[in-house]
Amino acid sequence: MTQLENENPLIHQKLQERSVLPEEEDDNIVDAFDTREVFDLIRGINDPEHPLTLEDLNVVDLSNVQVDDGKNDVKVLFTPTIPHCSMATLIGLSIKVKLLRSLPSRFKVDVEISPGSHASEHAVNKQLADKERVAAALENTHLIAVVNQCLENS
């Protein structure tokens, strides 16, 4: 068995589930995407090392999600649990894939590490911003299997 990088992660309190308004269930009403809706898409992503969600570990937080529906922009900052987390790229890729699969294709999705929270912040952000690298990663059958495992039940 391999040694976990962060054997005893701090578990944070989850946000309350939001109530769905009748207008939101009406398919005839077009409503804008907001930060809470995007956060709800990513909060349940599984951590690759622990049987916990990214929200449980405070890797994703509502305050680090920005949505501009009019400009078709979504930006998510995530914070790895430790500064040398080797899973940071995989976590970022999982967030990006979840949003690309869930949001309309009109959205430009940016996923980055929160400034100052990771030793390889620049390198990870560069990988996550590179469309060709992301596309190549998604063609790797082993890697996409791991990403899909993180997205299971999310």
How would you explain this protein's 3D organization?
This protein is α+β, with helices and mostly antiparallel strands and 154 residues long. The protein has one domain (31-151): GMP Synthetase, Chain A, domain 3 (2-Layer Sandwich). Helices cover 36% and strands 10% of the residues. It has six helices and three strands, in the order H-H-E-E-H-E-H-H-H. The chain has helices at 22-25, 35-42, 88-102, 121-129, 131-139, 141-151, and strands spanning 65-68, 73-78, 108-113. A three-stranded mixed sheet has the order 1-2-3. Strand 2 (73-78), helix 3 (88-102) and strand 3 (108-113) form a beta-alpha-beta unit. The mean pLDDT is 90.
Order of strands, widest sheet = 1-2-3
* Most strands sheet: 3 strands, mixed
Total DSSP helices: 6
The percent range for helix content is: 25-40%
Q: Shape, please? A: globular
Q: CATH first level: which class?
A: Alpha Beta
- Poorly predicted runs are none
Element pattern in H and E:
HHEEHEHHH
Strand residue content: 5-15%
Assign the CATH superfamily. Fe-S cluster assembly (FSCA)
Mean pLDDT: 90
Q: Which architecture name does CATH use?
A: 2-Layer Sandwich
